[in-house]
Design brief:
heterodimer, A: alpha/beta, 7 helices, B: mainly beta, about 5% helix
């Protein structure tokens, strides 16, 4: 491999296009290929409050988008991320370093260094299989990470006609006190904060949070420069 | 993996296309119109899903084999003579390989690369693809691989064909392979498309042309005779650069 003497530039982003489903969300769409992630983040061995996140992606004409893919990434109910960079997971410093030393650790069954790994925290859902063009995730409500931020779910948005993926967040309407202190929400103009806060409904034991994503218009969702 | 950085560099908008590129029509109603809101990176952005070799199926890195339905079951006889195996997809066999690094040039080891593409006739297996070109019963088009310790990925496939789309009159997409990578955190996420050198459709494609001119050639693979497998598959090299650690000083030309 030749030594780069100048800083190489970032590889440009391109749209996910209309035909991502058989590559990225195959099981959801019925293709004969295993999915690496699904819309169901629950794990039987992880306790927590069951939640459902559902919503649509609406274009500038208010039409629901049928070829979007939504990814979510969240902490577990104790506020821990299943990643070596999260060193509050109960592992001692050496354990965390071991985990960070190589992803190969997971191949060798090295999960013990990451007590929070039982809850993966990552999900994917395309909007092409629901008759109402919704994405629907079943998960557990994340805890606060302990850094002053309110509980939230990180969201990545992909769709045909979008040349760069976008980042946004779901906050929970029933966390009003924590939301009022959240530094990210406070940095968002007050009039736009509501686009990040999902209203809560109850369906039996499951708390249902509604989170529509508006690509344009008066209610255009806040997207972050991460 | 090296230590997790305290932050990642921002997206370089001199490298990425704009969110609204009028010649790519659907961006006009689908790209957000308001400026992105700056976000200080926290644990939420410095972490992300970890997928390594355990997420791979046996034939995931060979698209010439993982979709076969005619004849011999997949996974048999890796040494079979070329051109004589039943159930082989039609098209020009290719080997695509490249190194994934961050902006500091550090190899990104053991990271998942997801790929999907049209068949040699330019047809996707996706149910809503209505292009009047044949499906290949022995080609699926989806796959994945994981980078090795040097950050290098590789997979076999067939060269995807061009296909028409409705963006403008007589619009054709150049042959391309879709790539999806996570990198070490959600901040380094990348979805892109790899193109082939010398394709005359590149100069006419509004999706490719939406990329700033200086960065476009980063999306075009290089034909590489040293990667080419004799009497079997043409080799194409496509290196990928993900966002790097924020605190890394820029290296300047010596």
């Amino acid at each position: 491999m030749s030594k780069e003497r100048t800083k190489p530039g970032q590889t440009p982003s391109q749209t996910v296009g209309p035909y991502f489903a058989y590559g990225l969300t195959p099981e959801q769409y019925g293709y004969p290929f295993a999915s690496i992630a699904t819309p169901d983040l629950r794990r039987p061995e992880v306790a927590g409050e069951p939640i459902r996140i559902e919503g649509r992606v609406l274009d500038g004409k208010g039409e629901p988008v049928s070829d979007a893919m939504i990814e979510i990434w969240q902490a577990d109910p104790q506020g821990r991320y299943a990643h070596p960079a999260d060193r509050r997971s109960g592992a001692d410093r050496a354990g965390a370093d071991r985990a960070g030393a190589g992803r190969a650790g997971a191949d060798r069954g090295g999960d013990a260094a990451l007590p929070n790994i039982a809850f993966g925290g990552f999900g994917r859902c395309g909007t092409g299989t629901d008759p109402e063009r919704r994405f629907v995730f079943d998960s557990l409500k994340p805890g606060a990470a302990g850094d002053g931020q309110a509980p939230h779910i990180n969201v990545i948005v992909f769709l045909r006609g979008l040349l760069n993926h976008l980042y946004t967040r779901v906050y929970f309407a029933d966390e009003a006190a924590a939301n009022a202190r959240d530094p990210v929400l406070r940095a968002v103009p007050a009039g736009r904060r509501g686009t990040l806060i999902a209203a809560r409904d109850q369906d039996g034991d499951v708390a249902v949070y509604r989170f529509d994503i508006h690509m344009q218009g008066d209610r255009e969702t806040v997207f972050f420069d991460v | 993996m090296t230590d997790t950085p305290r932050g990642y560099s921002r997206r370089d908008w001199a490298s990425h296309p704009p969110l609204i590129a009028p010649d790519y029509r659907s961006t006009q109603t689908r790209g957000p119109t308001r400026p992105l809101v700056p976000l200080a990176q926290s644990l939420s952005e410095l972490t992300g899903p970890v997928f390594g070799r355990e997420s791979l199926g046996a034939l995931d890195n060979d698209l010439t084999r993982n979709g076969r339905r005619d004849g011999a079951p997949p996974g048999e006889s890796p040494g079979e003579p070329p051109g004589e195996s039943p159930g082989e997809p039609l098209g020009e066999r290719i080997l695509v390989s490249g190194q994934v690094t961050d902006e500091a040039g550090r190899p990104q080891a053991n990271l998942l690369v997801e790929i999907w593409q049209a068949n040699a006739a330019g047809r996707y297996v996706h149910q809503t693809d209505r292009h009047d070109a044949p499906l290949d019963p022995n080609f699926f088009g989806g796959g994945r691989c994981v980078t090795d310790d040097a950050g290098v990925y590789r997979f076999h496939s067939v060269k995807p064909g061009a296909y028409p789309w409705g963006n403008h009159d007589n619009a054709w997409r150049p042959g391309h392979i879709h790539f999806s990578l996570f990198g070490p955190s959600i901040a380094t996420r990348l979805v892109t498309q790899m193109y082939f050198p010398g394709d005359p459709l590149l100069d006419l494609d509004p999706i490719f042309l939406a990329v700033p001119a200086a960065a476009r050639d980063r999306l075009v693979a290089r034909f590489d005779i040293s990667l080419t497998e004799p009497a079997f598959a043409l080799g194409y090299r496509f290196d990928i650069v993900l966002r790097g650690p924020r605190e890394t000083p820029m290296e300047t030309t010596a």
